[in-house]
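Researcher: First entry.
Model:
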Amino acid sequence: MNWIILILAGLMEVAFTFCLGKTKTAEGPELVWWWLGFLAALSMSMYLMAKASETLPIGTVYPVWTGIGAVGAVIVGIIFFGEPATFWRIFFITTLILSIIGLKVLA
């Protein structure tokens, strides 16, 4: 169950990154909503990460959390913000994913 909580925490990190990206182009009330979404996702991410660290080693929790966030942020950037999907970006994102899986296998 704690791995599910940790994965959700990582997905909330992706959500707050997405909201932060949307604040670049938003104005007026829409900007406020994106900032509120950012704060809500950030708070939920921190809470879930703290919850997961109650039973999983912090040396596993933090790298997995940041890895999910990093991979998700790159994917969000490519899909929603028009960032390039170069060979090397995909290669290194793949190595991050394999590292996350490796930590799961070893923990």
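Researcher: Second entry.
Model:
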Amino acid sequence: MLKARIITFLMAMVPVVELRGAIPYGVIAGLSVPEAFVLAVLGNLAPIPFLVVFTRKVFEWLRTKSEGLDRMVRKLEAKADKNKEIVEKYEFFGLMLLVAIPLPGTGAWTGALVAAMMNMRLKRAMPAITVGVIVAGIIVTTLTYGAGALF
């Protein structure tokens, strides 16, 4: 069971997979739905402070290393710009919604990227991202196992 807990937590930290993949994995691996939910939420949130604080610095450094890395950084910045409008318009709720909707191109990593590109302070970004991750976890769990599985 320890292995399933660790993998569920780590899987939730991975971009794209995040808790959308970690919750079903955890349950399939033998964890209860609430335990998989909690581990996935915590795992999904673990890298967020570092992403919000250091993304711009890492991007600046990557730009100097090669043209390929510079292109990758520009693509990521364009993705952030595409999602920035909802956050600028609705602030806390915009960032929360961007993170909460469990669709491709959304999630905690995208929310952290947008927050970093907008020079948003961690103390302002983290609460919205946290609520968004919890809502996304509830949505994923409800769609996968039904509302009763959480309680």
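Model: Note on the second entry: The radius of gyration is 16 Å.
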